[in-house]
């Protein structure tokens, strides 16, 4: 519970109805969750507008309505109405105040970019924990607070949830938080109400552009750049062509890292490591730090992820040995994740679920000169058919063998999705087999693995379910592999 005036202390507002002498019991932005004495924030969304539910919220007992435009209310409603220029923006500051500004008790690291955010957050968490810090994480896969893991619905949650998680992290003894910061989250002011100690830019490619996201690439770029007006230290990938545009108008100090261009921190002498059933990279760090590193994930982009993590953790005074140990043993679920099944061939799980990501993944794995590159994937139902054609064509051109299977069919017939993928395959000379049941498809890949093969299971990544006709059934590829191997041993 908090006094209304305290919650609004950092917000520009006008009280247009009722009095300010109120205690707020909670902050909600879903009218179905209104409780007696709560503040209901009317947020205009892509599909529905919270202002339409203001009357219903008042009837349900909301003590305060936070609005940015006119609302219809019953004449006898006992409710205070606070008008602000932007309810998304105001909610971030109100939420921070409600939870007692928890970000001020911790170091906050925000990572933005098209690719690499998820992996880098886990690498940073791993390195800092090796050095004895207690680190909370907010990201695409999950929220981690101590031993508690919470499933994530969005890369960057609503501001109220961010502050709620911050509060729980601070109370659990966390001294640092590392979080993914999406362009949507920045655009919708979810990360307002606090200042990042470190803001990191990984890279930028056309993505998330459409009616419900960004209107064009310039808007996407502009929103990414907002992070550097809300952090104390900016750390950017100097190799990315957009780094100057992203940091234009920045209010933070800037540092750079890179491989191909002059930078404050560089990766040099990069080599590929191919061992029994495993792939990795080795490189030398030079500039602000100087030492050699090995990582247990393949590809140049893995070097970028590791270098990003090193650039961040340098500010925490982490010893070189802790960095090296953490990077060698860190694994990120579903991000080029190695699963040991044989010394003869390599098996990886990756989240690549569109043509751009699949092309990048297969290009990386080609650099290891496998005997055969085998790609197993499916496509989600109730999504654009073009994705199926494109992924089929990419795998047909780049893999030696494609195993077409099911992903999340949702309300579509799995075979119909497979048939669409085959249309893309038909534009190539690529060899393929189709096995609709995903477990059977994985078993086929393992049973037919040849010495020197690299087999990648693409599309599911960190997901531990399969969605069929609106129901999510448990299905984790790691469990499927474990079962298959047990059956073979049996």
Model description:
The structure is a single chain. 31% of the residues lie in helices and 25% in strands. By secondary structure, it is α/β, with parallel strands linked by helices. The chain folds into 3 domains: 2-98, Udp-n-acetylmuramoylalanyl-d-glutamate--2,6- Diaminopimelate Ligase, Chain: A, domain 1; 102-329, 3-Layer(aba) Sandwich (UDP-N-acetylmuramoyl-L-alanine:D-glutamate ligase), CATH 3.40.1190; 337-489, Protein-Tyrosine Phosphatase, Chain A. An 11-stranded mixed β-sheet has the order 11-10-9-12-8-13-14-15-16-17-18, sandwiched between helices. Strands 19-20-24-21-22-23 form a 6-stranded mixed β-sheet, with helices on both faces. A 5-stranded mixed β-sheet has the order 2-7-6-5-4. Helix 2 (54-59) links the parallel strand 5 and strand 6. The longest helix has 14 residues, at 117-130.
Radius of gyration: 24 Å
- Helical amount among residues, as a percent range? 25-40%
Helix count?
Answer: 15
Class by helix and strand content?
A: alpha/beta
Per CATH, the superfamily of the largest domain is Mur-like, catalytic domain
Tell how many strands the DSSP assignment holds.
26
Please report the first level of CATH classification, the CATH class of the largest domain: Alpha Beta
